[in-house]
Amino acid sequence: MEWSALGARLFACSAVMVAVSTLAVALRFISRGRILHVLGPTDWFIAATLVIAIVNTAGVGAHVSRGLGTPSSEISNEERQAALKLQYFLIIANNLGLILSKISVTLLFLDVFLLTWIRKATYGILIAVILHGTALTLTNIFVCIPISLYWTDPRDPTCGDYILRFIIQNSINVVFNFALLLLPLPLILPLRLPWRQKLWLLVLFCLGFAVCIFSVLRVVFVRADLRDDDYWAAGTRIVLWSIMELNLPIIIACIPTLRPLAAKVWPALAAATPPASDTSFDRTPRASSAGPVRLRAFDRYPKRSDFRPV
């Protein structure tokens, strides 16, 4: 089927987003792999998320070729079923990508933060994300019984209320986004840092906050689009929100890891890092403890030794 102008613009936006995501992940691997030599599970999870984003972009092109962005009156029943079948798999892949990106962020926190309480909180979020991801994936796979009803008769009662399902699933996603945003703040806010590092942390926090606000807006606007009588025209907006929701976390999750690369390219940035003798950090240990995750508890102010390089 010939692409509509709306569908072509949608695919172009998707291609641009995934290109930026690919660049961000490539730079992340250079920074952590070639410079710091600390590549770990967090990096491979974000790479897996990127693979899903690339597959999702290819799927958007296939979806457009099957009528997405075209008025439903111009789409045959065969094209509609083919598009819905493709949509079924894309929804599963998209949600899996979102879960993988959150797992990557939690693993990065475990790499960076050494204090016991924040590691326990991070493990709690990680377990919750995995359980939610498992339940979400199974729900999306068995959304209709039999599964083929999704593309033959998606309005069948056995498929449930798809709008309610969307709201519940994505509201939980919003909660996880805010949890990951707020988790490190009690450790980061007391830090006495040079203004460049403060600016860097402020930018990162603002980007994370933007993702949280974006996820809230997506729930609001997509809910309205799902009620549109002509899904095939309104569906482009729904898919666009999904594309951005999948790619933005990839990009933003990579930004904190690029500082070593930036300092290597622009050595002046390295001057923002306090020297080891910097007295603006309280280094007096309060207590030391044993155990696989509790390395050391510190006085009021977090220290650079509370962090590992990212």
TrEMBL record:
Pfam family, one: Fung_rhodopsin
Transmembrane segments: 6-30, 42-66, 86-110, 122-151, 163-187, 199-218
Keyword Kinase: no
One cellular component term from this protein's GO annotations in UniProt: membrane
Domain Rhodopsin: 27-263
Compartments, record wording: Membrane
InterPro entries given in the database record: Rhodopsin_dom_fungi, SAT4-like
Keywords: Membrane, Transmembrane, Transmembrane helix
Membrane topology designation: Multi-pass membrane protein
Family: Belongs to the SAT4 family.
Official protein name in the record: Rhodopsin domain-containing protein
Species the sequence originates in: Corynascus novoguineensis
